[in-house]
Design brief:
Distance between the termini: 39 Å
Order of helices and strands: EHEHEHEHEHEHHEEH
Shape: globular
Number of helices: 8
CATH class: Alpha Beta
CATH architecture: 3-Layer(aba) Sandwich
Strand content: 15-25%
Largest sheet: 8 strands, mixed
Structural class: alpha/beta
Radius of gyration: 18 Å
Length: about 300
């Protein structure tokens, strides 16, 4: 059997997909490929000028049987501002697939509008709130982009936002990516308990050269600068993992990535931290996230 690629995507004609952070990198490729196969794609981006530039390079797919054409829409969403998240969600009528793709990596310490450490705020809490607010409008699945760096993550429920300990950029990133997996696990548990047919999946891109690494600090920043030139795959390969999770028939709480961590055929991956398998930690993080964002599971 040949390796799965975006060329194997089924038609998404008549379906709507929201992709956060779709103005560049993995998100842009994800949105482009879904539009190509007929989806209406909403590029949910902080900078709409950059979103418009990305959208201008995306062509709609024309289905020979139905004549359906993919459409691309750019809408403002700032995951570092819960008021923006609420405004975006209020403007959505229905969506088949939500792709929680946007993220920042190993940035200097900063706070979101709502006072969250910026990495946990953007990568987890913003998407947590968005998902809960949109959940009654979702018809198929939620896919959240995590990372191999979940393996270095530790969730500190007493200090999720690094207020009482020295801030460390990479551990903070690892915490946020572990949070993505715990969120997916608990979301699927709650969907199952509610008798919902919706699915929650996660994906990791392997190691793809995107502008995400350009903001990394310290020695790791220099490592990624070299790694992008020597060993990294391209954004098309990284987005392939997300597209597989978006389109394939998978059991709930699947984690998709390259077979050999950074390269190889796309499919379920074992690169999930043992900490990400803790049902108790997943529930505790969910409850804390509800308190911090003032959003609730709504099915």
């Amino acid at each position: 059997m040949s390796e799965w690629t975006a060329a194997d995507l089924p038609s998404f004609a008549g379906r709507t997909v929201i992709v956060t952070g779709a103005n560049s990198g993995l998100g842009e490729v994800t949105a482009r490929e879904l539009a190509r196969v007929g989806a209406k794609v909403v590029l949910a981006v902080r900078n709409t000028a950059k979103g418009d530039a990305a959208a201008s390079g995306m062509s709609g797919y024309v289905d020979g049987a139905s004549g359906a054409t993919g459409r691309v829409e750019v809408r403002q969403l700032d995951l570092q501002d819960l008021a923006s998240v609420r405004a975006f969600a209020d403007g959505v009528d229905t969506v088949d697939v939500l792709v929680n793709n946007a993220g920042i990596m190993a940035v200097p310490y900063a706070l979101t509008v709502d006072g969250f450490e910026s990495q946990i705020g953007t990568n987890h809490l913003g998407h947590f709130a968005l998902t809960n607010l949109l959940l009654p409008k979702v018809t198929d699945r939620v896919v959240t982009v995590s990372s191999q760096m979940n393996l270095i993550g530790r969730i500190n429920l007493k200090d999720l936002n690094w207020k009482s300990r020295p801030y460390l950029a990479w551990p903070a990133y690892g915490q946020s990516k572990l949070a993505n997996l715990l969120f997916t696990k608990e979301l699927q548990r709650r969907l199952d308990a509610a008798g919902s047919k919706l699915k929650a999946h996660a994906a990791h891109p392997g190691y793809s050269a995107t502008n995400l690494q350009s903001h990394s600090t310290g020695a790791f920043g220099k490592f990624f600068e070299a790694g992008n030139r020597i060993v990294a795959t391209d954004a098309d390969f990284g987005a392939r993992q997300t597209l597989y999770a978006v389109s394939q028939d998978l059991p709930g709480d699947s984690f998709i990535g390259p077979r050999y961590a950074m390269w190889g055929p796309t499919g379920p991956t074992p690169l999930r931290s043992p900490l990400a398998r803790s049902a108790a930690k997943a529930t505790a993080l969910w409850e804390l996230s509800e308190q911090l964002t003032d959003t609730r599971f709504s099915l």
